[in-house]
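Protocol step 4 of 6: structure prediction from sequence.
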Amino acid sequence: MKTLIRPLGRSTVFALALVLLSTACNRGHRKGEPAYVSAPQAILRDRVAAMYNKVGTVKNAERVEIMDRDKRFAMVRTANGMQGWMEQRYLVTQKVFDGFQKLAQDQKDAGVQATAVTRNETNLHLEPGRDTDHLYQITQGARLRILKRALSEKRLPGAKPAQDAPKPMEDWWLVRDPENHIGWALGRMIDVDAPLEIAQYAEGQRIIAAFVLSEVQDGENKVPQYLVLLNENKDGQPTDYNQIKVFTWNVKKHRYETAYRERISGNLPVTVAHEDFEKEGNLPTFTLRIPDDTGKMAERKYKLNNPIVRRLLAPGEQATKSRR
């Protein structure tokens, strides 16, 4: 009995061609594809097997070329020609690396709002969120410069919350690390620096930032005077801060005193400067950015004529106030 072999239809031939083309692309066109190491350090092995020999290591943010792939692993070649297999989860694409470069370029002129220290090893993400791409990793105890804040939805283990329930949010900070890399760090992984001598006046709130407004001479020492931003001691607040305090130094009593406090909700950045005020002389000023009901930002400027803080009203505001 003869077996009849039917010719393949056009659709079948086309489908097989696509499969072969895809396979060829995956094997051929990926050779030499650039990638970057997102782990602090990764091992290069001589083969993909339970038993292997270590042929070298690669470090965080190091550029490699992908020579081949095998499920969880990729064969890579380093800049000095070393080759080995490593886990693909420790690699990010050229697109992710370029995204970090663009972020650094966009934020190159951003003013520093505070400094902080990492509690543990911390990843820098391209965008706020735990599931977003990350590349650089910062060591525990590293000092960071904070540029701005953002919110991201917090992932909760277990069952999903009801649709009408408010989504839990967590804080993320855009930071610059000691090597001038810029990225988003999870807020709970860092501690904002606050002068110890004024931290005791936080009254249970979280200190967001502390700016030096001026210095006063007390004997042989110069003592800084501070503008401090505070917020509720929990993540997810709608604004970056909801209260400001100005601490001035009492030369006679040799201690800090609260010269000014105001419940006001605002967002970073805050600008600190000095201006000339004729008879009053050159005084420190600070400018806050306050959102209105539509989210539009309005500026409020204050001056410190030690130890008095006064708001500087715009001409229109002053005229309106006097008419009232």
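Step 5 (inspection) to follow. Confidence is low (pLDDT under 50) at residues 1-6, 12-29, 319-324.
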